[in-house]
Amino acid sequence: MAAQSIGIDVRTQGGPGVLHQLTGVIARHGGDITSVSIHEAEAGEARVFFEIRLPAEAEPLLAELRATSVVRGLETVETFQRVFGKRIIIVGGGAQVGQVAIGAISEADRHNIRGEHISVDTIPLVGEQPLAEAVRAVTRLPRARALVLAGALMGGEIERAVREVRARGLLVISLNMAGSVPEAADLVVTDPVQAGVMAVMAVADTAKFSIERLKRRVF
Amino acid sequence: MAAQSIGIDVRTQGGPGVLHQLTGVIARHGGDITSVSIHEAEAGEARVFFEIRLPAEAEPLLAELRATSVVRGLETVETFQRVFGKRIIIVGGGAQVGQVAIGAISEADRHNIRGEHISVDTIPLVGEQPLAEAVRAVTRLPRARALVLAGALMGGEIERAVREVRARGLLVISLNMAGSVPEAADLVVTDPVQAGVMAVMAVADTAKFSIERLKRRVF
Q1: Helix axis angle, B157-167 to B128-138, nearest 10°
Q2: CA gyration radius for chain A?
Q3: Per residue in A151-182, pLDDT tens?
Q4: CB contact under 8 A, B140 and A26
Q5: What distances in angstroms separate CA B141 from CA A64, A103, A155, B26, B87, one per listed residue?
Q6: CB A87 within 8 A of CB A105
Q7: Contact criterion met (CB below 8 Å) for B97 and B108
Q8: Cβ <8 Å between A19 and B27
Q9: CB pair distance less than 8 Å for A80 and B140
Q10: Which of B17, B34, B125 faces A38 most closely, judged by CB atoms?
Q11: Does A190 lie at the interface with B, CB-CB under 8 angstroms?
């Protein structure tokens, strides 16, 4: 059997060391963990959600996990990649984040109907430091593919953060705004709705759109 | 020193077993891992982002992690809870998801300015099965607090999924729509912008709004 990706939702006892035990079992079965999230349920209980690439059938791994003392229950589930897919992140001032979101959500709808999986995630924020932190944090978010900066004035530390995350391979689109952030972005778009649409087009496999082939970077 | 939450961004070699080694070090220091995300960088390298509750100072843990053979680099970073905070998830048809997002983002902006951290995440989807899967997957998403179902017709398997996630403690708001989903939701709202606003008010510590104290459940 070929390698496959599976999702496992495990109910366990809470506390330090539980993840170490579970990952030990998974490593023994040659599983490559691509994502983990941990949720606290009631006192003393946790839910751990793994996404794992497995070289072989899942059943022996699942059986050994079920037999582990800290495990109280287990079910296989869809992976986040299958359900929520690629993520567009929109950060900035509420009025403009909302307009970019309208464009991105409408465009994602059109691609998701044709089999893509694109979600659009947003946070309205104010202030140079919180915005710079949010920009840097995007490269730690699972499945994030593009960042749109939606505001009227951004520069300084935010510009430095944009250059860092672009160097790590993230696509950055900026609204046409005051400050130095537009100079640091891959693409500058004046209309917020179009900025959202272009962000989705740039990451959709169902779209014919390539930032590299554009003759202009400012719209 | 009191317990603290820290974020650590670790560059490691890729492949099975790496997470097991790292979690072993963290467990030895009494660290309770509350979130992990794993990213592939270039071939043979991965980035692992941990959020850890620690009973003591971080430096001895960081030093031991740095000395681990699979670790190539490490830096401390802000936690997702501090940067992106609580999440409102909006799922459904593009036109309506966009309008709910407008309301939620504007309202989150007003609370985030006063020190809250609320982000608004969306995915436009079509079809009973994909929607039911997305609803169930929300309880596995880190920091998700409320779900808004934005559509014109939802029932069947989606209704069953709504009842399951409510039983796990997730707040569910439905637009007033055809199908059985509104009957299964905590709250039914006709105006999509207001639905987004109410979802944020319900999870914001800066808001005076409690679903339990409402005399009506349909608006």
Answers
A1: 0
A2: 20
A3: 999 999 999 999 999 999 999 999 999 999 99
A4: no
A5: 25, 24, 32, 23, 9
A6: no
A7: no
A8: yes
A9: yes
A10: B34
A11: no
Question: Residue B11: what residue type?
Answer: R
**Which residue type, as a one-letter code, is found at position B86?**
K
Bridge-based pairing of strands B171-175 and B118-124 is: unpaired
Helical ranges in A49-127 per DSSP H: 59-66, 80-83, 94-112
CA distances from A195 to A25, A114, B96 (A): 45, 21, 19
B27/A16 CB distance under 8 A: yes
**CB < 8 Å from A in window 15-74 of B:** 15-17, 19-20, 23-24, 26-27, 30-41, 47, 49
Long-range residue pairs from A157-166, CB within 8 A, at least 24 positions apart, any chain? A157/A128, A157/A129, A157/A132, A158/A128, A158/A131, A158/A132, A159/A183, A159/A184, A160/A132, A161/A131, A161/A132, A161/A133, A161/A135, A161/A136, A162/A135, A164/A136, A165/A135, A165/A136, A165/A138, A165/A139
- pLDDT, tens digit (0-9, with 9 covering 90-100), for B73-132: 999 998 888 899 999 999 999 999 999 999 999 999 999 999 999 999 999 999 999 999
Given a contact cutoff of 8 angstroms between Cβ atoms, the answer to whether A171 and A194 are in contact is no
> How far is residue A123's CA from residue A125's CA, in Å, rounded to a whole number?
6
Q: Which residue type is seen at A79?
A: T
pTM (predicted TM-score): 0.91
Longest dimension (CA), chain A: 60
Assembly ipTM: 0.90
- How far apart are alpha carbons A162 and A135 in whole angstroms? 7
pLDDT at B38: 82
Chain B residue numbers touching A35 (CB-CB < 8 A): 37-38
Instruction: Give backbone dihedrals phi and psi of B32, rounded to 5 degrees, phi first.
Output: -105, 110
**How confident is the model over B10-33, as pLDDT tens digits?**
999 887 788 899 999 999 999 988
Tell me which residue in B35, B49, B121 faces A119 most closely, judged by beta carbons: B121
Q: Hey, which bits of A28-85 come out as E strands? A: 32-40, 45-54, 71-77
Tokens representing A125?
A: 């924020």
Distance of alpha carbon B126 from alpha carbon B72, whole angstroms: 43
CA distances for A196 relative to A104, A192, B124, B192, angstroms = 4, 6, 14, 20
Best of A10, A13, A19, A37 to mutate (most B CBs within 10 Å, chain B): A19
A38, A84, A106: residue with CB nearest B137: A84
Q: Which residues face A39 on adjacent strands?
A: A47
Taking the Cβ of residue A110 and every Cβ of chain B, the question of whether any pair is shorter than 8 Å is answered with yes
B140's torsion region: left (phi>0), alpha (psi -120 to 50) or beta? alpha
